[in-house]
Specification:
Layout (H helix, E strand, L loop, with lengths): L1 H24 L2 E7 L7 E8 L2 E9 L5 E8 L2 E2 L1 E6 L6 E8 L2 E2 L1 E6 L5 E8 L2 E2 L1 E6 L5 E8 L2 E9 L5 E8 L2 E2 L1 E6 L5 E8 L2 E2 L1 E6 L5 E8 L2 E2 L1 E6 L5 E8 L2 E9 L5 E8 L2 E9 L5 E7 L5 E7 L5 E8 L2 E2 L1 E6 L5 E8 L2 E2 L1 E6 L5 E8 L2 E7 L1
Amino acid sequence: MKFSGYIALKALLGWTIFLVAFGTAFSQEEVRTYYDEDKKMLREVYSKINGVPQGAYKLFLPSGELAQTGTLVNGKKEGIFVDFYPETQDTLRFINYIENRKEGISKSFYPEGALSQVLSYRNDKIEGEVLTYYESGQIKQKAQFAQDRPNGETILYHENGNIKERLNFQSGVMDGKRSQFDEAGNRVAEANYQKGQLHGEQFTYYEDGSAKSKLYYEQGIQEGEALFYHPNGQVARRGTYKKGVPVGSFESYFENGKIEETGKYQRGILTGDITSYYEAGTVREIASFDAAGKLSKIQTFYPDGAKEKLGLYRSGLEEGDTVLFFPNGKEKERTPYRNGRMHGVQKIYGEDGQLLMERVFEEGKLVETKSK
């Protein structure tokens, strides 16, 4: 009997030791973290076993909505993690993890559930083809990635399926030709890039494929002749750039080839007169600029050459009297300016030269009106 009691006691002690060891090995606690010190805005909920995060993981927004769920293994993300739209709790995106690194296919969704994007991760970086979709299901963009950056050709699509844009990347930097198209498939622009900067000839086009503009860049800086065209092929505007600034003569033309405007730049600053013409060939406006490129005088003319307006400026602001004329040459209106504001007595005349009204201004504000 004593022997049997000893055996029973030994067995009981062994079982107790086992229970204590088991309890120690599997101590578990729930962890809650918060956005605020008062612990009212819950941030995370997960469990720790022997001090190591394990099992279900939940992340919440400061506003309280569930933002993400997943699983932790030995303190690392493992398996599928799902992100949610805060308003509806519908799935926004899911990403697969292996030992805390993104790995494999990830998908994103529109709020109504349609597929938005599909991509793949390799060793925590986006690799291979990335497909983006319109909510209708039509493909929106197809891109190649390497080491988390665009690499190779990227194609963008209009929702009708036609190509919108083709461009190329090298290690995340645009390089090579970039072509753009309208919804009907017509080419609208072509540009060339080198290491992320415009380089070489750049074109835009009208719907019929004819040239709309032709520019040239060197390492992101505009150089040489700039040409713009009317739809009929006639030159609309031409000028020259040097180190990114306009220099020399610039001319604009009507569609019939007649001159519309002429002007000159010196080191990027307008100098002298800019003269605009009516299509018939008579002068419409002469704008004069000082050495600093500030407007100093404007003269406009009626189609028959009669003076229409004379305005004086100082440092680009109206100064002195601005005078308007009737086609018969008589004054229509005389308005005094100071520092760009009407100041003094404005006089308004009838076509017969009779004074009709006087208005008094102080620093741009009308203070008195006198009818004659």
